[in-house]
Description:
The structure holds two protein chains of two kinds. By secondary structure, chain A is mainly alpha-helical.
Amino acid sequence: MSSETQQILTTDGIPLSVSLKKAERKNKIKAFLLVVPLLLFLIITYILPIGDMFMRSIDDKMVTNMLPKTFTAMEKWDGKEMPPEEVFAGFYSDFKILVQNKEHGKLAQRLNKEKNGFNSIIKKLFRQVQRNKIDEGQSIKEQIMKVHKRWRDVEYWQAIKRTAPPYTTAKYLKGMDMYYGPDGNIMQVEEDRRIHRILWLRTLEIAFFVTLFSFLMGYPIAHLLATLPMKYSNLLMICVLLPFWTSLLVRTASWMILLQQQGIVNDFFVMIGLVADDNRPEMMYNKVGTYVAMTQILLPFMVLPLYSVMKTISPSLMRAGKSLGGTPFIAFWKIYFPLTIPGIGAGCLLVFILAIGYYITPALVGGASGTLISNQIAYHMKTTLDWSFASAMGLMLLTGVLVVYWVYNKLVGVDNIKLG
Amino acid sequence: MSKNQEFVKFDKVDKSYDGKVLVVKDLNLDIAEGEFITMLGPSGSGKTTCLMMLAGFETPTNGEIYLDANPISNIPPHKRGIGMVFQNYALFPHMTVYENLAFPLKVRKISKDDIDKKVDKALSMVSLSGFENRMPAQLSGGQQQRVAVARALVFDPAVVLMDEPLGALDKNLRESMQYEIKHIHESIGVTVVYVTHDQSEALTMSNRIAVFNDGKVQQLSSPDKLYEEPVNSFVAEFIGENNTFGGEVVDLSNGSCKVKLSHGEILANPISVKSKGDRTTVSIRPERALINPENKMDNNHAGTIEEVIYHGDHTRVRLNLLGNSEFILKVPNSSKNLDIKLGNKINIGWNSQDARALDPK
């Protein structure tokens, strides 16, 4: 190509691109060094924990490590009829080590999750092993099968085999109310036990409506903020930000005071005769409470990006629209509104993403019907201690947020976002 | 066809924003159909407020504005049919040039074909044909300005308002746009109300100029009259350059007056002095004072050159004359033979007709 033959040289005869790179190198290093602290911070506090969470959510090595010989022996077993003698022998020798290390309880717990009934038969086997009742000279298969009838049931051995792989996606399936059946295919949980799906849908629903309410309330406020004269708009800005600076807990608690059945709002309704005193509506410990409190708390995240965009829209544009013959509504709809879309996008995305993972407020005012998926995650973190399940759901939530972001990017374009 | 001399009429209009200060005081102004009138004045003089009242973005506190004999105070801006060019163009940034121009036509429910024709015509008028699909941000300042002008004219309004439309352009572009707007006005005969604080812009473009100060029209007349015959010292000072002497009238007779200054006396043309003993400010345009005048002039005084500044086509000379050390002369570049050197004493002469004795400052 002609451009290659006509390479531009500097006066010293060095190719221009080489020379430019050399000149820019110092700046590049400087720029990189400036962002290194942030980069490290991000890696340590964000990327590594997420990686760890991911590993934890698919990690299933415990049984794999506890029963190495069993699983080696099981490789040759077809998994349909009772396993052969070698499997039992392997299992016995693994189990003896577990008993020595007092780890058989963990195994029982884990296997019991896979199939109910393991707890008691492992305890029984443990007692036999402890008392040295198992004679290693004879068939171990026969002896173990005698310990409890369930040891003679092939389904229990199938359950053990299912725990063999070091990694599992079972937690993710569980998060969607599904599980692996005995023959390894994916099954649905019975309909009346599908709690997670309800929670996911409710989380989406609440996040959507909270975003919608924040938008409907935030848009006029932001417009007022952007158009009022300075002295009023500053005051209004403080009104918007004041709750923002108040502790989240305090705000949520004050909503509890306001919304409870004997609370101020209900008192007011009774006073003006809207509702009867003995028929006060429940506005807390249900979705209403979650909607009200979350909308109020997330409102600034809608108002601020909208405000920053509206502030840049020159008032003369609306005037131009009107002087050119557009009614105030047309001027708003054709000129003002399209120009605020970047702010709407930023505000909605911000509020939606914050709402989808919201925790404290729904936990306090949500009750049973107003809790979100994050409350479930916390429950597994703190109460059941099933961290891998909590991690799996956390990652599913993160994926959901990324999907929302992706869809948003397709629809509006992330370049159009303006946060300020 | 006789043109309506009161096409736009401000009738005793007052405007106050805070109820304490009047921004516009008792404004009476008639604008003829097809006229190019400029409201000129320093910032805060009320000229933009007048424009905004005419456009409908502000309401008069008192008085009424008539457009073609109809009172318009209660008509909202979008029904007035007045085109407007804004200070920062106010092009819709999310629309193409075509869409910007089509906006006023679309809201008037004009058919697609007619819109195309009108947009075409308007764009060719400002010589921007072929720019239909550009976004405003892709245009230069001057091009944006032309689009704004085209948009204000595309729906054939009876009146077009322009609010310092050339303020953001650089000097050369501003000058060429001045001529362009003037030519557009001449070719389509629309009534233009133009607001500016730039006096040369006003002088170049207008049929008549209304000089605003302090909420009042100080003088309303054609550019040449405004320059040659200012009626008060504000106008004299605001329009063009101006040498002033402050003094007291000591004699007033047959179309001429004698003014006593701190150093000496001069003869002047009594414009707003009524009687002996009045304080006055005498205003003389720099080009009306000559060095070593050949013809006999009734004012002749000697001054000392204090500063000489070369300006290319002319040389500015600052003199100390009759106690006024700010007396400016403009010496054309052709007069080479004159002995203009710092510290030289020279003789200055002017006709008393050109020295206007106005109200005291």
